[in-house]
């Protein structure tokens, strides 16, 4: 808690007393110290995410399964398993804003924040990884292609679309000529505000009310947000609906071996060369 007021400190101690019976949960410091603590905490978590995404990209080039690497390093208590899940970039209201704010404050103070700048750059680049995978698999020109997108919000459990990876994905796929059929359990209304109206009017972007409807006539399934509803779908239905049995898994939700056994071509994050993905 950041405060320069003894009176405010007393009030906050009384307020939090019922929640601190076993131990004092208040850490007191100056206002600017508390502000910096908040920025530093979110920037540290963002750094862990960007670091793991970088490792995933290296693993992919070397034919290593990043999921094994994640489990291995997470077993070290100094590292732990929190925020080391590779994916297609972080978003939301806190991480992007706070990293940018700390970068700006550092530069205004005359210090170049090279590490934080790299965290931000890696995250922006990571949001394009799925796009590059799709273009590599099909072509730079995606005219005539249809992609079913599962998940639009920046994370499960919210309709928050701020800095969501799905925005970059959908924009770049449509600009390459593709059409999108997308579904999200709660974020469809918010997501509708993020894209040009003409995309909905001319059918380049269609929001559907069921995850399986998103796959009707699609060339591939693209999973962007790891909602629980997507964890164990009916893969028989998925297979029947897709034109091509291809899955681009932006959150490594599915086991590549299981997907291959079911007849799918599977593209994960940091797992590309670790498995035989050809069908």
Provide an overview of this structure.
The protein is an alpha/beta fold. It has two domains: 32-125, N-(1-d-carboxylethyl)-l-norvaline Dehydrogenase, domain 2 (Orthogonal Bundle); 127-267, NAD(P)-binding Rossmann-like Domain (Rossmann fold, 3-Layer(aba) Sandwich), CATH 3.40.50. Helix content is 43%, strand content 9%. The protein contains eleven helices and six strands. It has helices at residues 6-16, 31-62, 66-74, 95-108, 114-126, 129-137, 165-175, 188-191, 197-201, 235-241, 256-261; strands at residues 146-150, 179-183, 205-207, 220-223, 246-249, 265-267. Strands 3-2-1-4-5-6 form a six-stranded parallel sheet. Helix 2 packs across helix 4 (95-108), helix 2 (31-62) crosses helix 5 (114-126) and helix 4 packs antiparallel against helix 5. The protein is globular. The termini are far apart.
